[in-house]
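Reopening this ticket.

The earlier resolution said the output was attached, but the attachment link was broken on my side. Pasting everything inline this time so it's all in one place.
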Amino acid sequence: MADDLYSVLGVAKTASAADITKAYRKLAKKLHPDLNPGDKAAEEKFKTIAAAYGIVGDEEKRGRYDRGEIDASGQERPQQRYYREYAGGEEGARYRSTAGYEDIGAFSDLFGDLFGERGGARAGGGGRRFSVRGQDAQYRLEVDFLDAVNGTKTRITLPDGGPLDVTIPHGVTDGQVLRLKGKGNPGMGEGGPGDALIGIAVRPHPVFTREGEDILIEVPITLDEAVLGGKIEVPTIAGRVFATVPPGSNTGQTLRLKGRGIKAKSGAGDQLVKLSVVMPERIDDDLKAFAEKWRESHGYDPRRKLKEQA
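Inline output:
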């Protein structure tokens, strides 16, 4: 124990009782063993400030300490002829201190205020024990587009090497955070564990995009399909289906497949199929001759409205 208990707490000898308590609270929050698990140096410092506060934080003991009747450890100082008798009696024993956790029991009301609602009763009823909920653990998880919209189960590896099973709900969005209760870092004292926060990053899909609960896809069609119409096979997030292309379809025209989007509480979204008329890679003589003959008798101006508006 240091010779000067006031210097241990970082206050002047003339400090008020309120200032002494304030200084002790500040140091206790910093050095408490429950906040520094395994840190022996912090533990010893905490014992020292607890013992110091046990004396100068008590009005009667502080007065006796200031008058030199007890030392920094709470022991009676030699009092000339009768010290041996006095120190061996009940009065001498009253002011001895172990300068350890036994002193903390005397401040249970202080620790109730110091740590607020996080202070929990120590097992066995002795004193107070600091309890705090464990910190949340944050992770980033990349998922494929189809796994995000349809839902899946996966497993991630924690920093300590342990596995954590994660259920990806259908319709999860990029940037969404999943909270797994009690799967975070352990708490201290009687505090429960924190949660695991899983930040979702959805990988883009080569053909599908998402707009709310709807799925968008661009599907190429041939010249004859555009002219004559017909059935075409279209991929969806749940597999392939057939869609009907109406005769005379144009690039940019959109077909709606009801209920083929993402499932939601309010109902499933739709899949929007945007058509794109694609010419053959090679224009053969037959197609060229047909187009020339057709144009002679069926010419039309698709840019008429553009000319009127420009």
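Reporter confirms the inline version is readable. Residues 80-106, 117-127 have pLDDT under 50 and may be disordered. The first strand starts at residue 119 and ends at 121.
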